[in-house]
Amino acid sequence: MTAIISQAPADRPVLTPRTVLLALGLVILAVVPVIGSDYWLNSLIVPTLVMGLAGVGLNLLTGYAGLVSLGSAAFMSIGAFSTYNLILRVPALPLPVALIVAGLIAASAGVLFGLPSLRIKGFYLSASTLGAQFFFEWLFTNFHWFSNDSMSLTISAPRLAIFGHDLNSPVGRYSLVVVTTLLLLWLAHNLIDSRIGRDWMAIRDMDTAAAVAGIPVGRRKLLAYGVSSFFCGIAGALWAFCYLGTADAHAFDLDKSFQVLFIVIIGGSASILGNFLGAAFIVLTPIALDILVQALGLDGIVDHGTVSNMLRIVFGAIIILLLIKEPDGLASLIGRLARRLSARPSRGTP
C-alpha cells in the first residue's frame, strides 16, 4: 500500500510588518490623548495629522495619477468656508454631514479647475491650477457674505459637536481629527487598490497607452482632481476649526499650497505613510530649530527677525540636502532601513 503524504502549504504569516505598524499606530493614537499635554495635542499632533491629510489629497493626484496642482490651499479654503457657512446657515446639519458636503463642494471646484488637464499637461497645467489659488483667495477676501459680513473677514470655529458630544476641548478636537483622518485613509487605500487606482497609475505611466487600453483617460483625470480636492477640502475645515480656531482667506495662501507640495516631495510620491512623515518634518523641524536657537542662547544675541530669517535658511538647506540625498522621500528611506533590518540574520541562526 502506497502511503500518500500530502504536505500542507506553509501558512502565511499573520503578523506582517504592515500589520504590526498599523496596530502600533492605532495604539499610539489611543494613548496620546492620555499622556500628551494640551500643547502636544494642539500645536504638534493636530497640525501634523491635518497637513498629512492634505498631503494625501495632493499625493493621490500627483503621485498616483501623475497630474499636477499648485492650488491645494485654495481647495482647503473652500472646505473651511463651506463648512462654516453650512453650520451657520443650516444649524440642524450634523458636523459630519457638513464636512462631507463641504468636501463635495471643494471636489466640484477641483473638477472645474481640472478641466484644462484634458488638453494640456506639465508646466502649463500647473500654471492653470495656480489660477484657482489666486481666484478663491480673492473671492473670500472681497465678498463678505462668505465670512458672515465680518469686518475682519475671518471665520470662527463653530460649536464642534457630534451626537451631543462636545468636541471643543483639545482631546475632542484631536479625536475629531484622528477619526476623520482614519476614515479618509481607509477611503484612499481602497481607491488605490481599486480599478480606479490602477487606471490612475496607468495614466501616470503613459496616458496614450492607457487610452489605447480602453481606460477613460479624461474621466479618470477629472475624478483625480475631484477626489484630491475632496480630501483637501476636509483638511482645510479641520485646519481652520481644529487647529487655528479662526481663519481668513490669507490662512490658505500660496505658501500653504507650497507646504502641501513639499510634504509630498519630502515624504515620498505615491506613498500614504510618506505624507505624514513629510508633514511631521514640515511642522516639527522649525519648532526644533527654534528650541535649538534658544538652547544656544542666540536669541539673546541677535534680534528676533534675524533669528527667524536664519531659521528659514537652515530649514530650506535641510530640505535641499534631503532631496539630494533621498530624492524618493522619507518613506523610501524608512522602507529601505526596515528591509535591511528584516534581512539581517538573527543571532544563533546558522
Percentage of β-strand residues = under 5%
Q: Describe the biggest sheet?
A: 2 strands, antiparallel
**Percent helix among the residues?**
over 70%
Q: What is the terminal-to-terminal distance? A: 39 Å
CATH architectural label: Orthogonal Bundle
Radius of gyration: 23 Å
Strand order of the largest sheet: 1-4
Question: Which stretches of 5+ consecutive residues score pLDDT under 50?
Answer: 1-12, 346-350
Note the overall shape: globular
Main CATH class: Mainly Alpha
Number of domains: 1
Task: Tell me what the structure shows.
This protein has 13 helices and 4 strands. It is mainly alpha-helical and 350 residues long. It has one domain: ABC transporter involved in vitamin B12 uptake, BtuC, CATH 1.10.3470. A hairpin with a 2-residue loop joins strand 2 and strand 3. Helix 4 crosses helix 9. The longest helix has 28 residues. The protein is globular and about 65 Å long. The two termini are 39 Å apart. The relative contact order is 0.15. The N terminus and C terminus are likely disordered.
Question: What is the strand and helix layout of this fold?
Answer:
Layout: H1 17-35, H2 38-64, H3 72-89, H4 95-114, H5 123-142, E1 155-156, E2 161-162, E3 165-166, H6 170-193, H7 195-205, H8 207-212, H9 217-244, E4 246-247, H10 254-267, H11 272-296, H12 304-325, H13 330-343
Antiparallel strand pairs: 1-4, 2-3
Main location: membrane
Organism: Lichenifustis flavocetrariae
Membrane topology: Multi-pass membrane protein
